[in-house]
Amino acid sequence: MSTFQAPKGTYDLLPPDSATYLAVRDAISTPLRNSGYGYIETPGFENVELFARGVGESTDIVTKEMYAFETKGGDRLALRPEGTASVLRAALEANLHKAGNLPVKLWYSGSYYRYERPQKGRYRHFSQVGAEAIGAEDPALDAELIILADQAYRSLGLRNFRILLNSLGDKECRPVYREALQTFLRGLDLDEETLRRAEINPLRVLDDKRADVQKQLVGAPSLRDYLCDACKAYHEQVRELLVAEGVAFEDDEKLVRGLDYYTRTTFEFVHDGLGSQSAVGGGGRYDGLSEMIGGPSLPSVGWALGVDRTVLALEAEGVELRLPSTTSVFAVPLGDEARRVLFSKVTELRRAGISADFSFGGKGLKGAMKNANRSGARFTLVAGERDLAEGVVQLKDMESGDQSAVAVDQVVEVLRTKLA
Fold first, then answer.
1. pLDDT at 60 > cutoff 90
2. Chain centroid to CA 229: how far?
3. Cys bridge to 96: 81, 91, 291, 309, which one at CB 3.0-4.6 A?
4. Banded pLDDT at 193 (limits 50, 70, 90)
5. Which helix (H) or strand (E) holds 376?
6. 394 forms bridges with which residues in the sheet?
7. pTM score, two decimals?
């Protein structure tokens, strides 16, 4: 065993399991790519203040979970704990919002980092695919993103997930609710840290998972009762669009989400087969985030879906993805001349778009055929001196066991036909 191991709370993605993660990423991103979203990639670390301002000083992410450090040059940086703030920062820096065509539609995929207590479904290093639509205030945009996430999950074969939906109001109506909620919370028996959080962002207290806190929250003022007419109308349009497209959802007036930048529409995808870590993804509208980080007013909406938890959801439902074989043809040479000829054929097959592999290391026939079996290849090419003297190689169907001689110069064409 190696002297070193992966850090606590992290994991290595290794074949063959890694193929499932790649398939999940592809399935989530496909509806986005088909809907005008372009790919963006940002650095793995950013200025600490980007997350402190955007994600929120009162959030657990910033106060407890962020990996922050100081560089030799004195810069205060942090490994990115989420994607939205970084994507918006990059879009603003590149002036994408000034190019016309709003909203700017972007999707991303990458690793994120939070110092959390490791458990199944919760890691310190995790993978997400996300989407952001920047620069437009339109209920149809909110609905579009929810529908695309729903489409992605259904394309994977998932069925036992639920969409929770809520509205958090805006800068007009939320302050009134905030004051009412703070008054209510001050009358509860809460610890000092929770009371401090209530003064900074009382909505975050509603998201507290502790049973003793939740018990006291019974009878708390409901944000729904404080929404202004504009927010009510906006939320109703989102709901109507989802209903019209047959996307089922549940209204959840306690849904807050863990980031301070959300306004109006907020939603979460949950899977009941995952235990306490039931959220597989979520998002919402964040109309004021651009101004929080020094940009112009750019109403925006987005989501992030967890690749790790989506894989766990697939396992919980017993869904097995149909993954393409990594190798279609495996070449087994017997002798030096056969090595030269079959190596050339493998290269030719790859150039023709056929996945092919080769028996390296000079193994004998028995060992090489074991490798061919392990590769999952549909066909095996075997050649020795006698075969080459006759201008042929042996083509074996690994499923049926049938074997036939094929002319060396016809190998690529024959396999292309058989694999079509």
1. no
2. 35
3. 91
4. confident
5. none
6. 382, 405
7. 0.89
